[in-house]
Amino acid sequence: MVLRHIFHLALLTASVQKPFMRVPRFMMLDGIDDGGMEKERSHRLQEIIVEECATYEVDYQVIFATSDINAALEESNLVVGRFFTPEARSLDVRDA
């Protein structure tokens, strides 16, 4: 799981560094902690993504979804939206 996400991050890095690359400067990683990844590994992967993207000098967009966000990122301006729980799901179809 980690290798696949790191590969996609490397591809994005190449696209922001090499003007001849025809790869969009956009990356979406859904469920970066899927597959039973340990919490520490998931948090380290999140750190790697943020650290690498901080080196980019061009416009880009990265979206990653996780069920267990790194605490260092949780209160940062990098987080968009709210935290979902079983009581406050992403799509609430119950009567208000």
What would your notes on this structure say?
This protein is mainly alpha-helical and 96 residues long. The protein has one domain. 36% of the residues lie in helices and 8% in strands. It contains three helices and two strands. The protein has helices at 2-17, 39-53, 71-74, and strands at 26-29, 61-64. Strands 1-2 form a two-stranded parallel ribbon. Helix 2 links the parallel strand 1 and strand 2 (61-64). Helix 1 runs parallel beside helix 2 (39-53). The radius of gyration is 15 Å and the shape is globular. The mean pLDDT is 87.
Q: How are the strands of the largest sheet arranged?
A: 1-2
Largest sheet, strands/sense/barrel: 2 strands, parallel
So what's the overall shape?
globular
Uncertain residue segments: none
> What Rg is obtained from the alpha carbons, in whole angstroms?
15 Å
| DSSP summary: helix tally | 3
End-to-end separation: 39 Å
Fraction of residues in β-strands: 5-15%
Tally of distinct domains = 1
Structural class computed from helices and strand pairing: mainly alpha
Order of helices and strands: HEHEH
Number of distinct beta strands:
2
Mean pLDDT: 87
Helix content: 25-40%
Summarize the structure.
This protein is mainly α.
What topology emerges from the helices and strands here?
Layout: H1 2-17, E1 26-29, H2 39-53, E2 61-64, H3 71-74
Parallel strand pairs: 1-2
Keywords for this entry:
96 residues, mainly alpha, two-stranded parallel ribbon, 3 helices
